[in-house]
């Protein structure tokens, strides 16, 4: 009996020392790099209606490092440039409301990727866990929010962003 327990404990210790399960390690390897945004869709839960999140064609990039760091920026387009060298309060607000950006760490847990912004365009995100579902669809990375209020409309929705890796 004692020998059996020793064998089981040894096997568990070896498994713990091996690190992440192979599937998670493969996902992280596939994730590392810079991705370009190709679509951003919001699906309203009550009606099932799907709409573009942004008014124009968004420009966005997300970069995942092997060191567990993530940086992202998304801007709507076209964005109105300020009339002068310094943006007015209204111009600055419009520019702020037409973007999203943050940098921090990330971890993978099964089919979830958790971003933890250290700095963010929206200070309410800084220091929080931004949990997203993710999957690979061919050459695309698909990231979706959990059901939550759409920040533009307030209606319960799921926002799904599709990314293609820059080679």
Describe this structure in words.
- With 167 residues, the chain is of the alpha+beta class.
- The chain has a single domain, classed as Lipocalin (Beta Barrel).
- The chain has three helices and ten strands; from the N terminus they run ααββββαββββββ.
- It has helices spanning 2-17, 22-31, 89-97; strands spanning 33-44, 50-52, 59-64, 69-75, 99-109, 112-120, 130-137, 140-145, 148-149, 156-165.
- An eight-stranded antiparallel β-barrel has the order 1-3-4-5-6-7-8-10.
- The longest helix is centred in the first third of the chain and has 16 residues, at 2-17.
- The radius of gyration is 20 Å and the shape is globular.
- It starts with a helix and ends with a strand.
- The model is unreliable at 4-20 (pLDDT under 50).
Give me the secondary-structure topology.
Elements: H1 2-17, H2 22-31, E1 33-44, E2 50-52, E3 59-64, E4 69-75, H3 89-97, E5 99-109, E6 112-120, E7 130-137, E8 140-145, E9 148-149, E10 156-165
Antiparallel strand pairs: 1-2, 1-3, 1-10, 3-4, 4-5, 5-6, 6-7, 7-8, 8-10, 9-10
Structure in a nutshell:
This protein has 167 residues and is α+β, with helices and mostly antiparallel strands.
Number of domains: 1
Question: Structural class given helices, strands, pairing?
Answer: alpha+beta
Helix content: 10-25%
Top-tier CATH class: Mainly Beta
- Overall pLDDT score: 87
Distance between the termini: 55 Å
The CATH level-2 architecture is identified as: Beta Barrel
Question: What proportion of the residues form beta strands (DSSP E)?
Answer: 35-45%
The DSSP helix count reads 3
What CATH calls the topology is Lipocalin
Strand order of the largest sheet: 1-3-4-5-6-7-8-10
